[in-house]
Amino acid sequence: MFYFYSSELDNEEIEKINNNPALVVEHIKNMIRKLRPECEMTNILLELWDLVPKAVPKESEDFPFKTYNPIQLRKVRDINLLTINSWTSSRVTLIGDAAHAMSPYLGLGTTHTIQDAEALSQALLNYSPENYISCIKEYENKMLKRATVDVLKSRYATIKQVTPVGYFGLIIRNSILKTTNFLMKIYDSVKILDLV
Questions:
Q1: Rounded to an integer, what distance in angstroms lies between the CA atom of residue 66 and that of residue 68?
Q2: What are the structural domain ranges in the chain?
Q3: The FAD-binding domain covers which part of the protein (predicted)?
């Protein structure tokens, strides 16, 4: 599960809770409560986070997957596409985010996955035991040509969202985040007073 809020400046306190999945989930749920209006969708979102395993599952029946990666809070990272080696066409290929990961900002990941599946199925219509690699190469060439533009747009949108522009951009971003943090503290105080 993935959820993205750029709502805080670099917070060293986050590292203290990152080794405890239950605390991470609680932190995320608190952020959702603070930054979203009270409504049915917010409640559904909070319920979804209740489904996240809070500890390493002990029995395979409790967790149907082979591996478990504990939930963590992570900083947004930018990976330059030019630094990634391309794969060699073989009898295995990739579709969707496995082939061309995009940030959620533009909302195009699922669309490209469906287009990849359709392009691969069209390429495999010409399959024979002798030419399967050429079928896969045909798919990969079409997929990379189509997806590269949106991967770059998605990367640009993400960088634009999380990177301030110049000195004044940095001041504005930090002021907005400090104001947001201040308002969240007021929200917490009001909630505490309501409970008293």
A1: 7
A2: 1-75, 81-161
A3: 78-146
What are the φ/ψ torsions at residue 143 (nearest 5 degrees)?
Answer: -65, -45
Amino acid letter, residue 173: R
Are 93 and 135 in contact by the 8 Å Cβ rule? The answer is no
**Region 156-165: what's the mean pLDDT?**
72
Q: Are 49 and 1 in contact (CB under 8 A)?
A: yes
What type of residue sits at position 163? T
Q: What span, in angstroms and rounded, lies between the C-alpha atoms of 63 and 82? A: 37
3-state secondary structure of 188: helix
Q: Which positions ≥6 away from 29 have C-beta within 8 Å?
A: 46, 49
Residue from 87, 93, 86 nearest 124 by CA: 93
**What are 49's two structure tokens?**
């986070």
For the residues 14-36, what does the mean pLDDT come to? 84
DSSP-derived secondary structure letter, 38: S
**Model pTM score:** 0.55
Phi (first) and psi of residue 90, to 5 degrees = -145, -155
